[in-house]
Amino acid sequence: MFKKVLIANRGEIAVRIIRACREMGISTVAVYSEADKDAIHTQLADEAVCIGSAMPRDSYLNITNILSACVLTGADAIHPGFGFLSENPKFIKICEQCNIKFIGPDYQTVQMMGNKSEARKIMKISGVPVVPGYEGEIKDEKHTLEIANEIGYPIMIKASAGGGGKGIRIAQNDEELLRGYKTAKSEAKACFGDDSLYIEKFIQEPKHIEFQILADEYGNVIHLAERECSMQRKNQKVLEEAPSNVLTIELREKMGEIAKKAALAVDYKNAGTIEFLFDKDNNFYFMEMNTRIQVEHPITEIITGIDLVKQQLKIAAGEKLEFTQEDIKIKGHAIECRVNAEDPEHDFRPCPGTIEELCVPGGMGVRIDSAIYCGYKIPHCYDSMIAKLITFGKDRNEAIVKMNRALSEFAVGGVKTNINFELSILETKEFLEGDYNTSFLEEKMVKKDVS
């Protein structure tokens, strides 16, 4: 096992990893930007190293500074968390060249799955169902129109190197396609440094269902059932639950086996997630593979009793999976709400500032993953998520009741949050019946800022 792990991240995921390491007897190194000098993860780790100024490019995306911190402290492995450098093949390759273990898959796999059009090709060849689309290179606007008319509207234009809902546009006709082509291309270049696009059929009113997988270095792969992630705003998840109430036992087994097939197709190692679009006729299609730990991993941990971060560490250290597929049992139901410092009344604009008052919920079946405290100054230069509130019940109804209670207890003073918005979701007929899809929030609940 590793003696010392550097966590190349910040916020609640850095705290989450530090806690897992501490329980395993592993020393930890926190890295931080100048904006995070008072962050909790710097206090919990055994050592902390400043790696640059506030902007991510100067700190959490600064490969040279992070590797220097690793060498300086003698860390023998790096855990990237999610976001930042977690899916950067260049960073992973350099770690390998420096004999530093990257806790995640190898750079070839990340590179293959990072290019969404290339991932589609691999999955299609491997017998994994994919959304009808065009896998080749899109040459220009004329070529885009030809492809779209061959596939049939509505279609979705997506950045090949994309992620996090960026570089995506939906088109219902030629005019919308040409407009979307330009904006998606520009956004893809700005966000990913790669303006290549691909086109696929837009599945209307789908659910977003993803399967958690674990794979060791000896060819063993298991899935840990699914997460329902359809409650989204602008392709960003807002609330997740596990398991999904629309999957039968037979469908779960079928999709789980397909998820394992997808992992084996790219010789996957460590924790990963296979994301599917699920239509109203129970057809499902591979959407993408996330080659890292997910924000919503706690709900899988709760219903399976398996610590995913500890499993990541064990797999990276060369240990075999300690579970078989038959060992994985689902117990109860879990829900996660992402608590963000943002203003839902004004197009969810970020609301950085100082937390002047804080009351966090507790009690049986309630978990908080966070790095905030009273007096904490939320920086303006990072993601607005300040906490993940997770509840567990013997069934879905009990998990919802607990979430209602927990959100009502959660008070954050000094900044605006989306807590009341999350509460309003729980009150809708569609959510209570589990009858919602990825367009629900945008169509039914999001208020547009007219100021």
From TrEMBL:
<dbReference type="InterPro" id="IPR011764">
    <property type="entry name" value="Biotin_carboxylation_dom"/>
</dbReference>
<dbReference type="InterPro" id="IPR011054">
    <property type="entry name" value="Rudment_hybrid_motif"/>
</dbReference>
<keyword id="KW-0275">Fatty acid biosynthesis</keyword>
<dbReference type="GO" id="GO:0046872">
    <property type="term" value="F:metal ion binding"/>
</dbReference>
<feature type="domain" description="ATP-grasp">
    <location>
        <begin position="120"/>
        <end position="317"/>
    </location>
</feature>
<keyword id="KW-0460">Magnesium</keyword>
<comment type="subunit">
    <text>Acetyl-CoA carboxylase is a heterohexamer of biotin carboxyl carrier protein, biotin carboxylase and the two subunits of carboxyl transferase in a 2:2 complex.</text>
</comment>
<dbReference type="InterPro" id="IPR005482">
    <property type="entry name" value="Biotin_COase_C"/>
</dbReference>
<keyword id="KW-0547">Nucleotide-binding</keyword>
<dbReference type="InterPro" id="IPR004549">
    <property type="entry name" value="Acetyl_CoA_COase_biotin_COase"/>
</dbReference>
<dbReference type="GO" id="GO:0006633">
    <property type="term" value="P:fatty acid biosynthetic process"/>
</dbReference>
<keyword id="KW-0436">Ligase</keyword>
<dbReference type="GO" id="GO:2001295">
    <property type="term" value="P:malonyl-CoA biosynthetic process"/>
</dbReference>
<dbReference type="InterPro" id="IPR013815">
    <property type="entry name" value="ATP_grasp_subdomain_1"/>
</dbReference>
<keyword id="KW-0479">Metal-binding</keyword>
<keyword id="KW-0444">Lipid biosynthesis</keyword>
<dbReference type="InterPro" id="IPR051602">
    <property type="entry name" value="ACC_Biotin_Carboxylase"/>
</dbReference>
<feature type="domain" description="Biotin carboxylation">
    <location>
        <begin position="1"/>
        <end position="446"/>
    </location>
</feature>
<dbReference type="InterPro" id="IPR016185">
    <property type="entry name" value="PreATP-grasp_dom_sf"/>
</dbReference>
<keyword id="KW-0067">ATP-binding</keyword>
<dbReference type="InterPro" id="IPR011761">
    <property type="entry name" value="ATP-grasp"/>
</dbReference>
<dbReference type="InterPro" id="IPR005479">
    <property type="entry name" value="CPAse_ATP-bd"/>
</dbReference>
<keyword id="KW-0092">Biotin</keyword>
<keyword id="KW-0443">Lipid metabolism</keyword>
<dbReference type="Pfam" id="PF02785">
    <property type="entry name" value="Biotin_carb_C"/>
</dbReference>
<protein>
    <recommendedName>
        <fullName>Biotin carboxylase</fullName>
        <ecNumber>6.3.4.14</ecNumber>
    </recommendedName>
</protein>
<dbReference type="Pfam" id="PF00289">
    <property type="entry name" value="Biotin_carb_N"/>
</dbReference>
<dbReference type="Pfam" id="PF02786">
    <property type="entry name" value="CPSase_L_D2"/>
</dbReference>
<dbReference type="GO" id="GO:0005524">
    <property type="term" value="F:ATP binding"/>
</dbReference>
<comment type="function">
    <text>This protein is a component of the acetyl coenzyme A carboxylase complex; first, biotin carboxylase catalyzes the carboxylation of the carrier protein and then the transcarboxylase transfers the carboxyl group to form malonyl-CoA.</text>
</comment>
<dbReference type="InterPro" id="IPR005481">
    <property type="entry name" value="BC-like_N"/>
</dbReference>
<dbReference type="GO" id="GO:0004075">
    <property type="term" value="F:biotin carboxylase activity"/>
</dbReference>
<keyword id="KW-0276">Fatty acid metabolism</keyword>
<comment type="pathway">
    <text>Lipid metabolism; malonyl-CoA biosynthesis; malonyl-CoA from acetyl-CoA: step 1/1.</text>
</comment>
